[in-house]
Recover the amino acids of this structure.
């Protein structure tokens, strides 16, 4: 009986020791798990944070690119609209300008181009010299290299006018491209100008007096196409001639 009790106690002690060892093993296992989880967490954040920051950076960059593209598109749309508006306004101006230019009766003066031949006929038949003063500015270099203009030493010379302002009053009946005009820059003197419709150019001036070519044929021969005379000289010759025969 005593031997049976001793064996039973021995078995109980072995079970208790085994239970204690099992408990210690569970605690150690848990510690290992916690440590592994902790290190994994540290490792995850060391990798995840840079990745997250990179993703945020890429997102911010992409968003900025999209906003910039949208902004650029809006600006281009505004510029395109402004350009279209400007082109439409320019087209309207050109249409209005062409309408004024080609009207048989003009409500206001129009500036036409003019060449040597038309200027000669204006001087020869009306005594008007369509000239302008051309100024070539004089510059000198002062101390320090500054470029300064001295108007008192400008070079001035009289040259043929390249434009003339006139207003059509009416079309000459039965004559193509001939108009009675007033010369806006010459006290609204009346004259007959030949201007082809659709052009910016005065071809020539014809005399208002129908008998001009018969009465003043010698003057026409003397002055027509005379390249040696300035417009002012042709105009003066006309005036002297007309005063002489009056």
């Amino acid at each position: 009986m005593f031997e049976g009790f001793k064996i039973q106690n021995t078995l109980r002690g072995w079970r208790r020791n085994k239970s204690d060892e099992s408990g210690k093993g569970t605690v150690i296992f848990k510690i290992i798990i916690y440590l592994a989880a902790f290190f994994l967490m540290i490792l995850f954040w060391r990798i995840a944070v840079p990745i997250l920051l990179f993703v945020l950076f890429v997102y911010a960059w992409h968003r900025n690119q999209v906003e910039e593209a949208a902004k650029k598109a809006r600006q281009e749309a505004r510029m395109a609209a402004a350009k279209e508006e400007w082109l439409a306004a320019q087209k309207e101006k050109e249409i209005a300008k062409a309408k004024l230019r080609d009207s048989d009766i003009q409500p206001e003066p129009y500036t036409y181009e003019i060449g040597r031949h038309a200027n000669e006929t204006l001087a020869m038949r009306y005594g008007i010299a369509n000239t302008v003063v051309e100024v070539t500015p004089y510059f000198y270099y002062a101390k320090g290299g500054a470029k300064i203009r001295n108007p008192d030493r400008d070079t001035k010379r009289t040259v043929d006018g390249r434009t003339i302002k006139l207003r059509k009053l009416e079309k000459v009946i039965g004559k193509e491209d001939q108009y009675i005009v007033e010369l806006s820059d010459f006290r609204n003197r009346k004259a007959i100008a030949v201007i082809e419709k659709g052009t910016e150019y005065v071809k020539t001036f014809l005399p208002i007096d129908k008998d001009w070519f018969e009465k003043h044929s010698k003057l026409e021969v003397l002055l027509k196409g005379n390249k040696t005379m300035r417009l002012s000289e042709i105009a003066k010759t006309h005036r002297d001639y007309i005063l002489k025969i009056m």
Q: What stands out?
A: Residues 110-245 form one domain. Strands lie at 110-114, 131-136, 139-141, 147-149, 155-160, 163-171, 178-183, 189-195, 201-206. Helices lie at 2-102, 116-126, 212-215, 217-223, 231-245.
